[in-house]
Amino acid sequence: MESNKKGYSSVDEYISACAPEVQEELQRMRAWIRAAAPEAEEKISYQMPTFAQNGNLVHFAAFAKHIGFYPAASGIENFQAELAGYKSSKGAVQFPLGQPLPEALIRRIVEFRVAENKELGEKKLQSKK
């Protein structure tokens, strides 16, 4: 996607640079992430839409043939069986364009990442005492 070469200042700006049919998919994903992590902050990180709460939770991005979803290595590892039908790597999964996004799975991965980041944040606080 050409728009990945541009610097973005907001998630809205990133999404509006995409093709209309891709914008719809990105807005759906954004809404599901927001529902699973209502306290998370939206930002652009690594030039991708990002949700952060006690650190980065997940990133997502549009490409020519897929939507990339980046829930960190732990998000991929803990849902490996459910992600088996998708191309994935250590910290990313590709959801092909033209196929329905797996809403329930995305929500569960985000909820897992919220809990994980909360636990990591609490451990950091304890270690500082």
TrEMBL record:
This is YdhG-like domain-containing protein. SUPFAM superfamilies: YdhG-like. Residues 23-114 form the YdhG-like domain. InterPro entries: YdhG-like. It comes from Paenibacillus donghaensis.
